[in-house]
TrEMBL record, chains A, B:
<protein>
    <submittedName>
        <fullName>Cyclodeaminase</fullName>
    </submittedName>
</protein>
<dbReference type="GO" id="GO:0005737">
    <property type="term" value="C:cytoplasm"/>
</dbReference>
<dbReference type="Pfam" id="PF02423">
    <property type="entry name" value="OCD_Mu_crystall"/>
</dbReference>
<dbReference type="InterPro" id="IPR036291">
    <property type="entry name" value="NAD(P)-bd_dom_sf"/>
</dbReference>
<dbReference type="InterPro" id="IPR023401">
    <property type="entry name" value="ODC_N"/>
</dbReference>
<dbReference type="InterPro" id="IPR003462">
    <property type="entry name" value="ODC_Mu_crystall"/>
</dbReference>
Length: 326, 326
């Protein structure tokens, strides 16, 4: 029996969906469902292709109550910039959660992944950052540096932003972009320590393999969201700094033990049991309980975010896209 | 940088690709590559959804020398027939093996999976069945029963076919269809034992959970290809029958230990080390070496077949499909 499949290009998706509070709420609801225990989220299918300097990840999650679920394919081919192409691309497929039929193919080249990743940062900030954030700190100068700043501003409307990256010119451009998108006064710092000293909320968005944040940089009333590390070998927060937190929260504890900051913390002897972000969202684990706490949220990116954004997007499309009868 | 993505519907794919010797050769080349050791094939991503009587598998493989690789999404939702829909559907995405960019989306609803599964049966028959097959035996009455018969006929042009299924009416219709597609004289048997007694090549295509083939049914000069079991809990060949083979071959030994007939054989104490089908194809393991041998090929379905057929299909399309600039 033929049914319609909606195909959306990246530009159609950019026209239909942006980073806003309704999207953040949808991602937050996904984390809440994940904590409820009825979500089915298998381990990531991950294929390393060293022979072509590439990798492919496939993520999915079934979330009860949503009409569909996403299968998200994320290739990263790191010689692409030499060819004038972005390293990351890929697509999401939305399937019916009742029949398994394909409902939509989002040829997003990673745009929806960027949005749902930034939205998770906002969810973390909403529950874990101090109520008032005067200054946002950002480590990193890429797409996520910009998007995380926009996401944080939606839930903690900071007046100042301080940013560090290895490349000063890139950091300056990123600071300009964040100033434009948020209206904050932005400046570039000389090093990560300067960023942390000035900030109440710090988001790390780098591919660092040697930790940037060490214990002596921590101070009361600080929240850090570390979203750069998503595979073994990356680390933005030293194990000792992780262990020094008053509270550590993971998007998914098992994933963070394999791919996130928790991995390095475990290797350094940290034996604590972090709560999940969904537990914090649903109130089954505490969020920030005092102004002086030092808190961390370790984000590796979950299939539940992909299903949440794909389900959200389908309601934003109007008549955009190409419909194929199949 | 925008590039073109080709979208193909099931009917466009059915018009462009059929079960023939070039396709079988392409699948055989995939198995050969798999044995060569340079293929990257991660474990299947498998998501069971008991709450909706469904499951989703995702398979992939990178095959050096091919321009692309497939990510194949196979949902099975077993309440669909109550809704007038097929249980199986899904799609394949073909990505560039150089850049990771999406090249094509095949909305095949499982058609290409059906073809590549049947083609693997032909590869097994080519290397393991006796040179002359007078009579083909089939257990099962579904799509694969029909396709496996067509595939076998391309490499072992049998004159007779004997078929068994639990439902006599379905078995009769299947026998008629096989007679039409192959020209063979087809009849329905009373039980699996009758099928095995009459055949030199038997293909099992059932979802049996209690083995249909027991040791006393085996006879010299018999080859069995068991392709029905693709998850823990299914079994078509009793462990003792597997252990009694002169030679057992697996499409992928690790997968067959988890999902195939080898699983039951291991549970029954079988300690042998089957060759892979790719080793047989490349000659690094022997195929059939005498007329009297009793041989088995255990097929669970591999990502390398998906990449092989997706790469083959892209060369068959002419100008079929919808091109989307992304």
């Amino acid at each position: 029996m033929a049914h319609d499949i909606r195909i959306l290009t990246e530009s159609e998706l950019r026209g239909a969906v942006t980073l806003d509070l309704p999207l953040i709420d949808a991602i937050e609801a996904g984390f809440a469902a994940l904590a409820g225990g009825a979500v089915v989220m298998p381990p990531v299918l991950s294929m390393a292709l060293p022979q072509v300097h590439g990798e492919v990840d496939v993520k999915t999650a079934y979330v009860p109550g949503l009409e569909g679920f996403a299968i998200k394919v994320s290739p990263g081919f790191f010689d692409n910039p030499k060819r004038g192409l972005p390293s990351l691309n890929g697509l999401m497929v939305l399937l019916s959660a009742t029949t398994g039929q394909v409902r939509a193919v989002f040829l997003d080249n990673g745009y929806l992944t960027d949005l749902r990743t930034a939205a998770a940062g906002a969810v973390a900030a909403r529950h874990l950052a101090p109520p008032v954030v005067e200054t946002l700190g950002i480590l990193g100068t890429g797409v996520q540096a910009r998007l995380q700043a926009r996401a944080a501003h939606l839930v903690r409307p900071f007046a100042n932003c301080i940013l560090w990256g290895r490349d000063f010119a890139k950091a300056s451009r990123c600071a300009e972009d964040i100033a434009k998108s948020t209206g904050a006064i932005c400046r570039v710092a000389a090093n990560p320590a300067e960023v942390l000293a000035a900030s109440q909320l710090v988001v790390t968005t780098t591919p660092a393999t040697v930790p940037l944040i060490t214990p002596e940089m921590l101070h009361p009333g600080l929240h850090i969201t570390a979203m750069g590390s998503d595979q073994a070998g990356k680390a933005e927060v030293a194990g000792a700094a992780f262990a020094a937190m008053d509270m550590a929260v993971c998007d998914d504890v098992a994933q963070c033990e394999a791919f996130g900051e928790l991995r390095g913390a475990r290797a350094a002897g940290y034996a604590g049991q972090p709560a999940s972000l969904g537990q914090v969202v649903t109130g089954t684990a505490p969020g920030r309980i005092s102004d002086g706490q030092v808190t961390l949220c370790d984000l590796t990116g979950t299939g539940v975010q992909d299903t949440a954004i794909a389900s959200f997007v389908i309601g934003c499309l109007g008549d955009a896209g190409t419909v194929i009868r199949n």
